[in-house]
Each structure stands twice: as structure tokens, then as C-alpha cells.
Specification:
Blueprint (H helix, E strand, L loop, with lengths): L18 E7 L2 E8 L6 E5 L10 H9 L3 E5 L16 H14 L5 E5 L2 H12 L4 E6 L7 H10 L11 H13 L5 H14 L5 H7 L13 E6 L8 H7 L5 E4 L6 H4 L1 H14 L23 E4 L5 E4 L5 E3 L15 H24 L7 E10 L5 E15 H14 L1 H6 L5 E8 L1
Parallel strand pairs: 3-4, 3-5, 5-6, 6-7, 7-8, 13-14
Antiparallel strand pairs: 1-2, 2-4, 9-10, 10-11, 12-13
Helix pairs in contact: 1-10, 2-3, 5-6, 10-12, 11-12
């Protein structure tokens, strides 16, 4: 198990620095924490039980830095949210999740759920697929009938408050037994979270054990399997990848169940790469490219004569004729806007891939990025472009390269600029 200490002073604190608030709903108040701006892709985070949204506090700022509008709420009955009036089923929790999403004024969303939260997100998605852009499962418990029955009978036995506080050690020992590598500070926060639920902290567990998730109904929903290498549900990888054969599996080494606080930047990078890759809506017209944009370099190129003219850069480094592809003859030395764009995109993406490798501590070996940019007609009589990136790194393992490419798409200015505006497909070829 990981022995990493949290990287921020508030990492193990119930409060933190993200914006917090309450919703008034029929069964009581729901507490939530939020980061990012309202016009970013909406990511709704559902924690594992019997804990709270504080699990994600350390990663909230990093998610906002990627442009995500993130809301992490306390499941009813947990953290600082009011309890439900009676034992709820997973479908009831899923119904409540959509009520929370609506009260927050969100339309289409991305869901990230861990353990109990993953089961709730799966059911909520099954009910309203039209509103879910993508899923991230941070460990989803797909128990067989035998394990479900065994856990229903013996798991989470609860505690009895004792005048001498002996029940505090019962809770402490349970948490330590589950996660022996976490810090004392993180364990202390979890004790507080257990106590906030009350002696019967297994209420949501019972809902999970009584529910059989319909994974087949989620086919076609873009899904990422993401968790720390030491997550307690890492043992289920074979079962989960069989249930979601099209979902990439990303394991963050050095992190456990609390990888969001142990490795917040790596966690946020992986989450954002998936969310941004599956967000189709463009930003508001006329909006700046990025909030707080600071110019670093400006290239100025003068073009005369349009597609049959000449392009000259102010530095003099570029001075080349332009020709229309349909009119180009053998031996013509001219280029066209699509070739110029492809060159810029490939070069920039290659640089972003290098940054991604350094962030992950990975050496890729030689990398080739080939960009294909296609000009095509659209039904309204105008033209549009589409792009394809082919990334090859024969010395880099395939899964590692796929992870780096996904991260590079969140780093590369070209990918960020065209996201939601043109179709970009990516082909990745790594080593064995």
C-alpha cells in the first residue's frame, strides 16, 4: 500500500479550500464542494461510502486548472449531508443524484464514481444516457452472487458508542485494516466521516449488496477505468475489464483508494484527459481562448493571393508559394493551408507528448507524430476540416503510450483549440 503523505495541508481535512454550499431537497440538505467555472465541462463526483466528498478536496484545484467545472457532493446520509428518511436502494440514490444535478443547474454531465459512488453513477447513467457524456469508474464493485451474499451477511457490522470512547478505536482499527498505508491524518478524517454517519455506517453498503448493476446497458457510453494501483478493488480488474471491454484501464502507481489526495496532479490529469476528449460542446462565441491568457510567442504570416498566392513570415524563415491541391502539377513546389496546419499540429503535439512523458516519469524512446488534415464539403454548401493524428513509439508499451497521448491532448494548444470544433481521431501504435 502507498505510504505517501498528502501534498497539501488541507488534503485530510473535512473542509478545504474549494467553494462549498448546500442544496435544500425533499429529504433534507445536501452538502457539496465545487471548483472551476460554470462554462467548463461539468464533472459530477460521487464518493465511496461511508466517507465524503472530502476525499477529492486535494484534486479540486487541479481539475479546475484543466477547465473542468467539478462538483463533488456528499451522498445523502454521509459527510455533511442529511440522512435519508429510510433505507434507500441504489435506484433511489440514482434518482437523488439526478435531482442534485438538476438543482445545480447542470445539463449534460460527466460522472466520476468510486466504489459505492460508481454503482450509483452506473444506475443513474442507465436511466438517463442522453445526459451523460462519459463515465469514470474509480473502482466499481462487480460482485458475484456468492460474494454479494457473504458481504450482506458480515460486512460493516457497525459499532456501539462506549462511554470510555472504545468505539473510536474500533473504527480506527477497521480503517487501518482496510488501508494500512494511509497517513494518520487521513485515517483521522475518515474516523470523523464514520462518526458523522452514526453506528450503522453500512447503510449504503446494503444497497450495493442488494443491487445487480446492468453493465450491458452502458455499452457505448465512453468509459474510463481509473484507480490507484493499491486500490482495494484492483483485484477486480479482470471482471471489470470484461464488463467494459472498450474502456481503457489506468492504474496510478503509488496511490491507493485515496489516490485523489495522494497523487492529485496525476489523478486530475487522467480525469481531465478523458472528460475533455468526450466533451463536444464548444465554448461561448467570442470567449477568449483561455482565462488569464498570457502571450508567450506570436507568429505573423502575410498571405497574398489566397490559396493560389504566397505566404511570407515576418521573420523571413517562411517564404513559400501556395497552390490549390486540385490544380497542383508534378514538380510544383507549392503547399496549401492543410499541409501547413498538419505540420504545426504534429510538431506541437509531439512537444506536448514530451511534456506528458516528463509528468509521468516515462521515457518513450523515438516518437513519430503524423498529422493528416482533410478538407471536405458539408451539407450547407460550405467546407470544414477534420484531423487525424497517428502516434508511433515502438519502444514505449502500448498502454503507457495511450495514457500519454490522452494526457497530451489536454496539454497541446492545438488540441485544446480545436476541441469541440472539428473531428480529431487518434491512432496510437506502441510496443508490446
Amino acid at each position: 500500500m502507498s505510504t505517501a503523505t498528502p501534498t497539501a495541508p488541507h488534503a485530510t481535512h473535512l473542509r478545504g479550500t474549494s467553494r462549498r454550499g448546500y442544496l435544500e431537497l425533499p429529504w433534507g440538505q445536501v452538502h457539496y464542494r465545487r471548483s472551476g467555472e460554470g462554462d467548463g465541462p461539468a464533472l459530477v463526483v460521487v464518493h465511496q461510502s461511508p466517507l465524503s466528498s472530502a476525499t477529492y478536496e486535494s484534486a479540486m484545484a487541479a481539475l479546475a486548472a484543466h477547465g473542468l467545472n467539478t462538483v463533488a457532493f456528499d451522498i445523502p446520509g454521509f459527510g455533511m449531508s442529511d440522512a435519508t428518511p429510510e433505507q434507500w436502494s441504489i435506484p433511489e440514490y440514482a434518482t437523488a443524484l439526478w435531482r442534485i444535478v438538476d438543482e445545480l443547474g447542470l445539463d449534460q454531465v460527466h460522472f466520476l464514481g468510486q466504489h459505492t459512488g460508481a454503482i450509483i453513477c452506473a444506475e443513474a447513467t442507465r436511466r438517463r444516457r442522453d445526459r451523460v457524456l462519459s463515465l469514470i469508474f474509480q473502482g466499481i464493485p462487480l460482485y458475484d452472487d456468492e460474494e454479494r451474499a457473504e458481504k450482506a451477511a458480515h460486512y460493516a457490522p457497525g459499532y456501539t458508542p462506549a462511554p470510555d470512547g472504545a468505539h473510536l478505536k474500533v473504527v480506527w482499527d477497521r480503517i487501518r485494516g482496510l488501508y494500512p498505508g494511509i497517513s494518520a491524518e487521513s485515517c483521522s478524517r475518515q474516523v470523523a466521516e464514520y462518526l458523522s454517519v452514526g453506528p450503522d455506517y453500512g447503510v449504503a453498503y446494503r444497497a450495493v449488496f442488494a443491487h445487480r448493476p446492468d453493465t450491458a446497458a452502458l455499452k457505448g457510453v465512453p468509459t474510463l477505468l481509473l484507480h490507484g494501483g493499491d486500490d482495494v478493488l484492483d483485484r477486480m480488474n479482470d471482471v471489470v475489464t470484461a464488463a467494459f471491454p472498450d474502456a481503457p484501464l489506468v492504474r496510478i502507481e503509488g496511490g491507493g483508494d485515496f489516490v485523489a489526495e495522494e497523487r492529485p496532479q496525476e489523478f486530475a490529469d487522467a480525469v481531465a484527459a478523458h472528460v475533455l476528449a468526450h466533451t463536444s460542446a464548444a465554448g461561448p462565441a467570442g470567449a477568449p481562448a483561455e482565462p488569464g491568457f498570457t502571450p508567450v510567442h506570436t507568429a505573423v504570416v502575410d498571405v497574398t493571393g489566397g490559396r493560389s498566392g504566397r505566404a511570407r513570415s515576418r521573420t523571413g524563415a517562411l517564404d513559400i508559394g501556395l497552390t490549390r491541391p486540385a490544380q497542383r502539377q508534378d514538380g510544383d513546389g507549392g503547399t496549401d493551408p492543410e499541409e501547413l496546419f498538419a505540420a504545426g499540429y504534429a510538431a506541437c503535439f509531439g512537444g506536448a507528448l514530451g511534456v506528458a512523458g516528463r509528468r509521468r516519469g516515462v521515457t518513450t524512446g523515438p516518437v513519430t507524430v503524423t498529422a493528416s488534415v482533410t478538407l471536405g464539403a458539408v451539407p450547407d454548401g460550405t467546407y470544414a476540416i477534420a484531423a487525424r493524428l497517428s502516434v508511433g513509439a515502438p519502444e514505449c508499451p502500448q498502454r503507457t503510450l495511450e495514457d500519454l497521448v490522452a494526457l497530451a491532448h489536454t496539454i497541446c494548444p492545438y488540441s485544446r483549440a480545436v476541441r469541440g470544433n472539428i473531428e480529431v481521431t487518434t491512432e496510437v501504435t506502441g510496443g508490446s
